[in-house]
Specification:
Length: 216
């Protein structure tokens, strides 16, 4: 097990009550980099935030299975991968849902789960790493970003290493390709702490962000 992947506990406070869809519990809060508990007979339904599901081989090579946001469902009953972890990329609110009730609810949840897995599978099997990266950025922006007048704004939630793990390449390659895309004007990087958002305060991001520029 990679040393940076460790089991952590949810916050004791800041919990919010969620509406019940299938005998769900109240929503629990988890900090960024914490892990959702792996429950053998329950799944987690995400109310807020972004979660990465992942596995790794005996050599410690990490494989990202998918990225999940609001409405997504993750958990041991939905995977055959071992080991398996659910890592919070942001602050997350999620509620556990037991198996074995509300068949319509589960049918809809499983279909959405399969559709998202297929989308990411299509992206990571593009022939070139550059095309994989571009399609991944737009997939993330569509799911977790927001449209602005210049294009799609995506707050940074993945490190270059995590992107590399999704695409099956190296961190160095991801950094090089992002620099190329920036030089070509296809994306703009902003870093609020470095003062790089001057003149773009209306974008309203919290710390770091990518702007995927719309074609003219």
């Amino acid at each position: 097990m990679p040393s940076r992947l460790r089991q952590l506990s949810p916050l004791a406070s800041g919990q919010a009550v969620a509406t019940e869809s299938a005998s769900t519990t109240k929503s629990q809060s988890f900090r960024r980099k914490h892990l959702l508990p792996a429950l053998p007979d329950q799944v987690w339904q995400i109310d807020h935030g972004i979660v990465r599901t992942l596995t790794w081989n005996p050599q410690g090579h990490v494989t990202t299975l998918s990225i999940w946001g609001r409405g997504g469902m993750v958990g041991l009953p939905l995977t055959c991968q071992q080991p398996y972890q659910m890592e919070c990329l942001t602050t997350v609110k999620a509620r556990s849902t037991p198996l074995g009730s509300h068949s319509r609810f589960w049918q809809s949840a499983l279909l959405k789960h399969l559709w998202q897995q297929e989308e990411l599978l299509r992206i990571v099997h593009q022939p070139s790493v550059r095309e994989r990266l571009i399609q991944l950025l737009y997939w993330l922006a569509h799911r977790f970003g927001r449209p602005v007048s210049q294009g799609q704004l995506l707050e940074s939630m993945l490190t270059h290493q995590q992107i590399a793990e999704i695409l099956g390449t190296s961190r160095v390659t991801v950094t090089r390709l992002l620099t190329q895309l920036e030089q070509e004007g296809q994306l703009i990087k902003f870093n609020k702490s470095a003062g790089q958002w001057t003149g773009n305060a209306s974008l309203g991001f919290s710390y770091r962000a990518l702007l995927l520029v719309s074609p003219p």
